[in-house]
């Protein structure tokens, strides 16, 4: 890293600024340097090109607004991100540019909206912030430096939510991760590789695929959830074994070579209708009647598989063909807990794939 008395330069930084970047050094202990990150950003915004802000160790209690339309990096020269704390909010509204936080510990909320190919990059960072973005791709990763978080090069302790894609690499993940990216055909909207999943980790996606590989899972209840409209979830066998051994709750998806369809709550018929919340449900009659007709199943989306079965062998559920949104080879009777029906939603109609009477009745 360059001497902390240096204020601004157009030469490359020793910690990796682009050759065209203006370098602005912040060091409250050096009168020749900028005293705050905000002052350095303002100076950079008055110029052109990328902005590199290098900060001395310390705690910076200030709310930051990142200049629009500029590639910005805020970095510490220390390999220990806990020595450079960004104790304030960070607001970033970008247009096809990137914001990188490197070797630092942000603790305040990071938020904003982005258009185009905008990336939020957190490299070798200890992220205690909540991150909420519209449009941005969020990357939390290490570039091979020494691990500071139980051997991992990154730490995520605050929830991340974005309408864009998410990639977590070599990171200890202790918080909820949510992507509502619904890009058609996107098979890897969320990627986790070489991560440690623990604490309050939960993964929720809608409309995109998820890829997990080489991940360790701490014992406890780790939750992997994605909506019925999500794409395929794939995991290597190592990660799948870790998830199952760790007591994870897995909802739907293809994991390695296995398809897992996790059960939701029992559904009780009301006026001939139930509403599915998962892809596997037990069905019971209304008011525990001896027999009840099921005409319509709401809550599924096009392409979703749904498995239903009898909740109680003492009561009979009759799936009615053609009365509501069910298309069956005929009325199907579930009068034993071993009776199972698999359906697929095609354009809003649920078609029977495999009605089975395992009870022999």
If you had to describe this structure to a student in words, what would you say it looks like?
The protein is mostly beta strands and 361 residues long. The protein has a domain at 267-357: Jelly Rolls. The chain is 5% helix and 43% strand. The protein has two helices and 42 strands. The protein has an eleven-stranded mixed beta sheet with strand order 1-2-3-6-10-13-16-19-22-25-28. The longest helix has 9 residues, at 37-45. The relative contact order is 0.06.
| Strand segment count | 42
Helix/sheet category: mainly beta
| CATH class division of the domain at 267-357 | Mainly Beta
Let me know the average pLDDT. Answer: 81
In angstroms, what separates the terminal alpha carbons?
A: 77 Å
What overall form do the CA principal axes indicate?
elongated
Q: What is the multimeric organization of the chains shown? A: single chain
- Largest sheet strand order: 1-2-3-6-10-13-16-19-22-25-28
CATH architecture term of the domain at 267-357: Sandwich
Give the % helix.
under 10%
Number of helices: 2
Low-confidence stretches: 1-20
Largest sheet: 11 strands, mixed
Radius of gyration: 26 Å
CATH topology of the domain at 267-357, by name, is: Jelly Rolls
Strand content: 35-45%
Topology at a glance:
Layout: E1 8-9, E2 22-26, H1 37-45, E3 51-55, E4 58-60, E5 64-66, E6 72-76, E7 84-86, E8 90-92, E9 94-95, E10 98-102, E11 105-106, E12 110-115, E13 119-123, E14 126-127, E15 131-134, E16 137-141, E17 154-156, E18 160-162, E19 166-169, E20 171-173, E21 176-179, E22 190-193, E23 196-197, E24 202-205, E25 210-213, E26 216-217, E27 223-226, E28 233-235, H2 237-245, E29 249-250, E30 254-255, E31 258-259, E32 267-268, E33 273-275, E34 280-284, E35 291-294, E36 296-298, E37 305-310, E38 316-319, E39 326-327, E40 332-334, E41 339-346, E42 349-357
Parallel strand pairs: 2-3, 3-6, 4-7, 5-8, 6-10, 7-11, 8-12, 9-12, 10-13, 12-15, 13-16, 14-17, 15-18, 16-19, 17-20, 18-21, 19-22, 20-23, 21-24, 22-25, 23-26, 24-27, 25-28, 27-29, 32-34, 33-36, 34-37, 35-38, 39-42
Antiparallel strand pairs: 1-2, 30-31, 37-41, 38-40, 41-42
